[in-house]
Amino acid sequence: MQKLIEIKNLKMYYPIIDGLMGNIKGYVYALNNVNLEIYENEILGLVGESGSGKSTLGNCIVKLITPKSGEILFENENIINQTKKDLKLYRKQVQLIFQNPYMSLNPRMKIYDILKEPFIVHKIKEKKIINEKIKKIISLIGLGEDVLERYPHEFSGGQRQRIAIARAIILNPKFVVADEPVSALDVSIQAQIVNLLLDLKHHLNLTMLFISHDLSVIKFISDRIAVMYLGEIVEISEKGELFKNYKHPYTQALLSAVPKIDNKNSEKIILKGDLPSQQDLPKGCKFHTRCKYVMEKCKNISPELYNIAGDHKVRCFLYEK
């Protein structure tokens, strides 16, 4: 498989400002040496609890924020220190679908103008081409042309998210970051949006990073799944392998919490201990404070991502060769 995006040793931390003088009293460590590969025409699911760094990673990839160190390679070119001209071209190829459709659409603009805006930003002026693309994209997302003269407040949450998706893909990007795109929607509507994203992926040959805390949605939509904990990838694998042969203790706990029809032989794993502060991360393995398999070296040494079978990788000393 051809790599589209490769992330190397990515770090991101935010300063904590104290008082009116603006003194920095510490940092929130959101990403800690993240390494990740995303292949062409796949959907990589990224899962983890709140505060694990999922959205920060997505925002770094689309360059909404600039990481403190590391590399983000798009088609083998590092985009971290791009010029404004190169960054504009990059953002035509890489788009973001926001979580909340009630906040991501300008309430003062008609839908036609919202969908036209990307063309204006990228200085595409041919009115005939713009109109044709807008009509085509509206049809692709399952809405009629009559919506173009209406405002966002006239639509339901699911319809707004369809419009937000249309805006993200209207310039035919190669890669899309979907940051919890269904979490603000009713469950019945979530399925429609997930199916729409799958249809668009196949129709437009999209590559996608799908961020969610919902494992059932991740399992349905993803080709591969990466599990994050405190700013690190702790396990990554093809989805069938991950759900059948999960290895990391944190992944075991996450999957044990997924509701099942038959619960007779399944035991829910309750993690003991509090989630460590992102301002003062534990030494060694970030998960050792809550892990029932903890060893002495886990407290002082950070494990690597060990390759255990094919593309299945786990950050845990239990699988050290």
What's a concise summary of this model?
The chain is 30% helix and 25% strand. It has helices at residues 54-61, 84-93, 111-121, 127-140, 157-169, 187-204, 215-221, 239-244, 249-256; strands spanning 3-18, 23-39, 43-47, 69-74, 77-78, 94-97, 175-179, 207-212, 224-229, 232-238, 306-309, 312-314. It starts with a strand and ends in a 7-residue tail after the last strand.
Strand and helix order: EEEHEEHEHHHEHEHEEHHEE
**How much of the sequence is in beta strands?**
25-35%
Give the biggest beta sheet.
8 strands, mixed
Low-confidence stretches: none
Beta strands, count: 12
Distance between the termini: 26 Å
Helix content: 25-40%
Figure out the total of helices: 9
Question: What does the model show?
Answer:
This protein has 321 residues and is of the alpha/beta class. It has a domain at 247-321. It has helices at 54-61, 84-93, 111-121, 127-140, 157-169, 187-204, 215-221, 239-244, 249-256; strands at residues 3-18, 23-39, 43-47, 69-74, 77-78, 94-97, 175-179, 207-212, 224-229, 232-238, 306-309, 312-314. The strands form two sheets. It has an eight-stranded mixed sheet, sandwiched between helices. Helix 5 (157-169) packs parallel to helix 6. The model has no long low-confidence stretch (mean pLDDT 92).
Q: Layout of helices and strands, plus pairs?
A:
Blueprint: E1 3-18, E2 23-39, E3 43-47, H1 54-61, E4 69-74, E5 77-78, H2 84-93, E6 94-97, H3 111-121, H4 127-140, H5 157-169, E7 175-179, H6 187-204, E8 207-212, H7 215-221, E9 224-229, E10 232-238, H8 239-244, H9 249-256, E11 306-309, E12 312-314
Parallel strand pairs: 3-8, 3-9, 6-7, 7-8
Antiparallel strand pairs: 1-2, 1-4, 4-5, 9-10, 10-12, 11-12
Helix pairs in contact: 5-6
